[in-house]
Specification:
Layout (H helix, E strand, L loop, with lengths): L1 H20 L9 E7 L2 E2 L3 E3 L6 E2 L1 H13 L1 E7 L2 H9 L5 E2 L7 H4 L2 E3 L4 E10 L8 H6 L5 E3 L4 H10 L9 E3 L3 H10 L4 E5 H10 L4 E13 L2 E3 L5 H13 L2 H12 L5
Length: 264
């Protein structure tokens, strides 16, 4: 089975490279692709509080990919902690929710090429003056950090900010990223770790209620996920590359991280 997966991945890569070299993208003939997401990670994907519509960077990217590859996208919703397993088991064709590309995850799902690179930052309340970096946060046993289990922010909190104990009671677990931000604003926790792009969106929309402190804690690449051996990986990679080449990715970044205001 592992050999078959390797061969499938190699074939997809060769195929995608050939398509790009030929200067065109594949036509998938209107194929339906079921994409699962969480809708809880602004500005990548979230529910507009005014219209109730699911929107975001990833939705716009997928709409563009759908046009370029001639696919019909259907969306489903699932919690973060169930997503990777569900995609791995083939319940969905693809997953998107700002998923960091990691070796352990790549053992159970296939990743697309990175569509975005981000850096982890510390988001706090606007009036926070008890700490200004990770070391000062760690030194105060009364301070709490919000995180979703199994996410990159969770592991950064455990291993880069605190003591390496995944059961540390200073880490308060929340089902969604948005719930952790609400807890921060309410004073129930004191820190949320997030990628810089999402953090900037929240801060810009907060009217001073939130801010970023300290230095960046690390770099992560985001990718879409697929069941192992999926024949969609090659076409998706080709589409992502074409969007990088023609400036579409840059335009999406400007729209969602500079121009758009979450909740505005």
């Amino acid at each position: 089975m592992k050999l078959l997966n390797v061969l499938a991945a190699v074939a997809a890569t060769v195929w995608a490279t050939g398509a790009m070299a030929a200067g065109h993208l594949p036509d998938l003939g209107g194929r339906e692709v079921v994409v699962v997401t969480e809708n809880a990670y602004p500005p990548l994907q979230f529910v507009d509080p005014i219209t109730g519509e699911a929107i975001g960077w990833e939705y716009d990217a997928m709409a563009e990919i759908a046009k370029r590859l001639n696919i019909t996208v259907t969306y489903e919703n699932i919690s973060w902690d169930a997503m990777i397993a569900a995609v791995s088991e083939g319940q969905f064709d693809m997953g998107m929710t700002g998923i960091t590309i990691r070796e352990d995850r790549a053992e159970v799902v296939d990743f697309s090429d990175p569509y975005m690179r981000s850096e982890m930052v510390m988001m706090v309340r606007g009036d926070e003056d008890r700490f200004s970096n990770a070391a000062e946060f760690a030194a105060d046993a009364d301070l709490l950090v919000a995180a979703q289990p199994g996410t990159t922010p969770f592991y950064v909190a455990v291993y880069d900010v605190l003591d390496g104990d995944e059961a540390n009671p200073r880490i308060k677990l929340f089902e969604t990223f948005g719930a952790g931000v609400q807890a921060l604003r309410a004073g129930d926790v004191d820190l949320v770790l997030t990628d810089g792009t999402a953090g900037e969106g929240y801060v810009a929309a907060s009217n001073g209620a939130l801010k970023i402190v300290g230095e960046k804690l690390g770099t992560e690449d985001f990718g879409f996920i697929f069941p192992k051996g999926s024949d969609l990986v090659g076409p998706m990679n080709a589409a992502i590359q074409s969007m990088k080449d023609d400036g579409t990715i840059d335009a999406l970044n400007k729209r969602w991280f500079l121009d758009f205001k979450v909740g505005g």
